[in-house]
Design a protein that fits this description.
This protein is an alpha/beta fold. It has helices at residues 6-17, 24-31, 35-50, 66-74, 86-98, 137-146, 165-208, 211-220, and strands at 56-60, 78-83, 105-109, 122-128, 148-159, 223-231, 236-243. It contains eight helices and seven strands; from the N terminus they run αααβαβαββαβααββ.
Length: 246
């Protein structure tokens, strides 16, 4: 299976997200009909079900630090967030400062494919909407697992393609027709571009890497007791598990 080079995917991702930060959180909620926050809460719930009292958490693809802030709302942990898009990080730092969390949340540029941390550094790790933006999801999952201590928790949130034929048809109509138009109307050309990209990219990803493949990739990366929770009639999926070896 031929893969797109990582540097090309990273460059595309930066270009796609560079123009979004100012209204990212507001429009992400509006265009998902409020499901984005619900999915994030489910991911955080899964993480804490495995590791109830983590001291150090890594949030990969942190964006504007929404998940990082939620993690500090729910725990006493310190959180490190990494993302490859500086514009998103800049917005995230502003939001962290507004919430008075700068002493507990640190944000830095970094790639999920090559995390700048030693083995077993973190008690827990989250990643959100990541696997469509890396060249090798299996290798990225191994890298994610590497920095989590044995017995620690890993949790993720990704989009999903609904399996039910009726809901799949509705999802396809929304992502191909309504989402691009709504994105352009509310956020301009940058959000219109994201709207055009999103649906086809989700479908293409799951044709190449079905959900069963993803579960097996988690297990091959050393994450056990993997739980899969489809959300919103199959429009999203939350997963969590425990790093083996405790």
């Amino acid at each position: 299976m031929q893969k797109t080079p990582s540097n090309e995917i990273n460059a595309f991702t930066r270009e796609l997200f560079d123009g979004l930060p100012a209204r990212y959180d507001l429009l992400a909620e509006a265009l998902s009909f409020g499901q984005n926050q619900r999915w994030r809460r489910a991911m955080v719930d899964g993480l804490f079900s495995v590791c109830p009292d983590p001291a150090h958490i890594l949030d990969v693809a942190t964006g504007t630090a929404g998940v990082a802030l939620m993690l500090t709302d729910r725990s006493n942990a310190t959180v490190t967030g990494i993302d490859i898009t500086e514009q998103m990080l800049r917005r995230g730092r502003g939001l962290v400062a507004q919430r008075g969390r700068a002493s507990r949340i640190g944000l830095a540029a970094g790639r999920a494919e090559q995390l700048p941390f030693r083995d077993q550094t973190f008690d827990a790790l989250t990643f959100t909407y990541l696997l469509r933006y890396v060249a090798d999801p299996a290798a990225t999952l191994r890298e994610i697992s590497r920095v989590v201590r044995p017995g620690g928790a890993v949790a993720s949130l990704e989009f999903l393609v609904p399996g039910n034929p009726i809901w799949h048809l509705s999802w396809k109509a929304y992502t191909r027709l309504l989402l691009p138009a709504a994105g352009f109307a509310t956020g301009g050309k940058e959000w219109g571009a994201v709207g055009r990209f999103l649906g086809p990219s989700i479908s293409a990803h799951y044709r190449r890497y079905p959900l069963g493949w993803t579960v097996n990739a988690w297990r091959s990366a050393g994450i056990e007791n993997v739980t899969v929770r489809p959300m919103s009639l199959g429009g999203g999926v939350v997963m969590w598990g425990r790093k083996a070896g405790a």
